UniProtKB/TrEMBL annotation:
Keyword Amino-acid biosynthesis applies: no
Pfam families the record matches: GST_C_3, GST_N
Gene Ontology biological process terms from the UniProt entry: glutathione metabolic process; xenobiotic metabolic process
Keyword entries, A-Z: Transferase
Positions of the GST C-terminal domain: 85-208
Organism superkingdom: Eukaryota
Similarity section: Belongs to the GST superfamily. Alpha family.
GO MF terms held by the record: glutathione transferase activity
Enzyme Commission number: 2.5.1.18
InterPro entries linked: Glutathione-S-Trfase_C-like, Glutathione-S-Trfase_C_sf, Glutathione_S-Trfase, Glutathione_S-Trfase_N, GST_alpha, GST_C, GST_superfamily, Thioredoxin-like_sf
Residue ranges constituting the GST N-terminal domain according to the UniProt record: 3-83
Protein name, per record: glutathione transferase
Amino acid sequence: MAGKPKLHYVRGRGKMESIRWLLAAAGVEFEEQFIETNEDLEKLRKNGQLLFQQVPMVEIDGMKMVQTRAILNYIAAKHNLYGKDLKERALIDMYVEGTTDLMGMIMSLPFQPPENKEKQTSLIFERATTRYFPVYEKVLKDHGQDFLVGGKFSWADVHLLEAILMVEEMKPDVLSAFPLLQAFKTRVSNIPTIKKFLQPGSQRKPPFDEKYIVQIRKIFNF
Ligand SMILES: N[C@@H](CCC(=O)N[C@@H](CS)C(=O)NCC(=O)O)C(=O)O
């Protein structure tokens, strides 16, 4: 039997967090090897472990996978969270890319110059409530099903819940105009694997704090 996947990344959310979410949702236990210093990163690079000299890197099924999207695709397909046919997969891809764009705006916020932060924060709320969340609310309304695609729990649901919780950390009432997304959030949060991941002490990571941003800058040299 293959061992547990081993995740190589910093001790924070970043690009690895959606991978942690997806593995957790699939009920897969995983190990984490944290990169704490630039030397740790350089060691991985020098050992030829990182195809493009970047992390996330996940050791899984005898591979050393890099590129976040490739890793997520592999896990989703392997654990049957990627639709039943090409058209469902296309929908899942579109929904996931939307939530990825929204989460990308949030993830870049701590790295913005201070004078940009207020503007960027307003833009995040505007995009969440006028561009992204209305789409998912409408999808749920139009088909009347519990999950976004094919009436079955998929990667798109996992990713949307992750995005909702990220925006709610900044603005707790952000779902006030989206009743179906509120119900969706409760429903998906109560799926046993997800419920476990949402408990304190799980491998889910907190948002970056200022101290951590300094460390990240040192690790990646920027
Ligand atoms: N396309 C890659 C980008 C990965 C990436 O930008 N990783 C950053 C850390 S989050 C990194 O390793 N930066 C160092 C570098 O690019 O040299 C992915 O999605 O995984």
